[in-house]
Amino acid sequence: RLTTLSLQPVITPELVQGRVHLKCTYSHPPSKPNLQYVVLWSRLSSPGKREQIHRETTLESFSYVEMDGTNLRLGDTVFCTVTAFTRDNPEQQSLPEDSKGFYAGIKFLPESLQIAEDGKEHILTVLSTVPIACPGQDDSCKITLQLSTEDLGKNSHLPGPPDIALSACQVDLLQAPCSESCCAAATVTVTAVTDFAQDGNRVTHVRAEPVGRKDLLWRAHTPKDVKVTVRDLPTGNCYSFTDPHIITFDGWRYDNYKVGTFLLCQSVSRTFEVHVRQWDCGGHRSATACNCGVAAW
């Protein structure tokens, strides 16, 4: 009975004669040596809808299809569906079995980030699920990706800092052996910019675009953006005003009527401190000092 077969098709990427291919592999039951297979390759054309791109009948327990940039492009999610039948009785067929969808192209991991304005670094990985191919070029084969950010909802005509900072403007994906759907990878760190403004939670998109590639396959491929949500955190404030009244970051209040140069605040984690200079401004009746200068490092 062919209906009980478990073919378990799986798609893996492979370089064949320097060109990117996908390989569909499935189980070949040794107890049924005279089986043939119909392999149907399809791509996700829209959510929930597939488009057939290749069909073949074979005796082998595998099937190849090329990423040619026309019928099958980078950015496609690909499936292979396998049906088995016996040569002496073609009408008797097994139930068609689907592989898992294989995303062929460059993508970010994680696909979205939620970070806060706390100065912490977050790792963003850029990877290719297919081999990096450089036809006619053996050494230094790589894909260079230009990274950019777009602040959504921010008025571009108004000045102001970006909401996030990247550790690099571009990354290189170098040719390497494929392992568990990763054929090349690079990392970049993302940090939320502390903007000292209560501007609510903001959304920024991180984009990667291949540069300098002439071949059709890579030139037209732009991976899906990463959505980075920056959670706004209240900013600490301290004050020194009039003769001088001082309010600390935690709300403690006191007065400092002395004349001289004083350390107003100092960070214990980074190079940042503020000095104030106070001078006599009370005249003969009272001993009062006022701020007359400030220096920040």
Automatic annotation (TrEMBL):
It holds the Pfam family Ig_VWDE. The keyword Signal applies. It comes from the Eukaryota. GO terms for cellular component: cell surface; extracellular region. Keywords: Disulfide bond, Signal. Residues 236-297 form the VWFD domain. InterPro entries: Dev_Signal_Modulators, Ig_VWDE, VWF_type-D. GO terms for molecular function: signaling receptor binding. PANTHER family: EGF-LIKE-DOMAIN, MULTIPLE 7, 8, VON WILLEBRAND FACTOR D AND EGF DOMAIN-CONTAINING PROTEIN. This is VWDE protein. It comes from Onychorhynchus coronatus. The gene is Vwde_5.
